[in-house]
């Protein structure tokens, strides 16, 4: 009996020591992973400084990247949790038509995080202040994707004399769409899931499995900037803050009834396509069809916001039209710019 007790204590002692050793090993690996991720980001940022200029808005750095020449200036508003690099397939081409600017919202890319709410009104006000600092005072063509489309609408309603035209690239609508496809498609997460995602990024796990080096096809010219901004875990805090403010942003967008006679271009994804690959097995065909019908109706409802509105469905495209069909974004935005220029020429002629 005494021998069995002694053996039991020995086994428990070995297990305890192994557990402590494993715990120490995990801590060491965590510290090493975090250091690796931190040093990799610092290296990539030093090797790839941001293009364009840094302006200080209310004492906080904001990054603006303008290329090309010609009025009206086009301002690109990225989607939820994204920075200026998402416009890499669009900005170079539009720059051959007009001056084109992309930027990083507060907390993303090379723009400092800012205190206060992250709803559409506050985001619009910060963009307006940035444009004033950059001496972009003439009316602009505002192009917004996804949540950026919602922010662009609020901007246009608050600064209507500063906007010559509006392009909504599969923009969020004020009305939430049916569950579950919409929440799955937007990768909605709970607080616990956000904490887990942030931990995997901060500890270098995401970098280990290659998520920090993924470059979308056709974006190779932006590869250095994409890598320099990827897996910078503090940006996840900015993402969460915008995510939590989406309800307020939708309510602010719902209050917009008209943009007057402003030219309005609505670019919508192709909801007639089959269930996207990344949703396959996660939702049913019926769910997808329900979502697609609701999404199409909401996109069509934007036509009521201006008598000079026009909607184009990008055939074969998913939510990221500027990735899947950049040619549609470029072609249709260029046509809108031409329309605005013709209006300006006619107005000048009428005054003579």
Automatic annotation (TrEMBL):
Keywords: Hydrolase, Membrane, Transmembrane, Transmembrane helix. One of its GO terms (molecular function) is hydrolase activity. It comes from the Bacteria. InterPro entries: AB_hydrolase_1, AB_hydrolase_fold. The keyword Oxidoreductase does not apply. Residues 80-331 form the AB hydrolase-1 domain. The keyword Transmembrane helix applies. SUPFAM superfamilies: alpha/beta-Hydrolases. Pfam families: Abhydrolase_6. This is Alpha/beta hydrolase. The chain crosses the membrane at residues 20-39. Signal peptide: none annotated.
């Amino acid at each position: 009996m005494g021998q069995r007790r002694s053996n039991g204590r020995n086994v428990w002692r070995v297990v305890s020591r192994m557990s402590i050793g494993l715990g120490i090993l995990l801590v060491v690996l965590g510290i090493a992973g975090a250091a690796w991720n931190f040093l990799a980001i610092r290296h990539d940022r030093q090797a790839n400084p941001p293009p364009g200029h840094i302006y200080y808005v209310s004492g906080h750095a904001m990054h603006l990247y303008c290329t090309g020449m010609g009025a009206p200036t086009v301002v690109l508003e990225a989607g939820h949790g994204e920075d200026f690099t998402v416009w890499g397939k669009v900005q170079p081409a539009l720059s051959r038509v007009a001056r084109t600017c992309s930027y990083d919202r507060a907390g993303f890319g090379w723009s400092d995080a800012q205190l206060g709410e992250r709803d559409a009104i506050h985001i619009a006000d910060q963009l307006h202040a940035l444009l004033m600092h950059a001496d972009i005072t003439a009316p602009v063509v505002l192009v917004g994707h996804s949540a950026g489309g919602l922010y662009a609408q609020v901007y246009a309603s608050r600064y209507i004399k500063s906007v010559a035209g509006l392009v909504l690239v599969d923009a969020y609508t004020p009305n939430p769409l049916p569950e579950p496809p919409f929440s799955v498609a937007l990768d909605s997460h709970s607080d616990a899931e956000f904490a887990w995602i942030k931990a995997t990024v901060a500890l270098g796990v995401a970098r280990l499995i290659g998520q920090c080096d993924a470059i979308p096809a056709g974006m190779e010219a932006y590869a250095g900037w994409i890598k320099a901004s990827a897996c910078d875990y503090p940006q996840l805090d900015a993402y969460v803050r915008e995510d939590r403010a989406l309800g307020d942003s939708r309510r602010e967008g719902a209050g917009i009834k008209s943009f007057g006679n402003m030219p309005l271009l609505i670019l919508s994804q192709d909801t007639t396509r089959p269930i996207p690959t990344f949703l396959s097995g996660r939702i049913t065909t019926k769910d997808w069809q329900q979502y697609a019908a609701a999404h199409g109706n909401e996109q069509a409802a934007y036509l009521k916001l201006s008598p000079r509105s026009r909607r184009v469905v990008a055939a074969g495209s998913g939510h990221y039209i500027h990735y899947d069909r950049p040619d549609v974004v470029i072609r249709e935005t260029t046509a809108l710019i031409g329309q605005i220029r013709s209006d300006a020429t006619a107005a000048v002629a009428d005054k003579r």
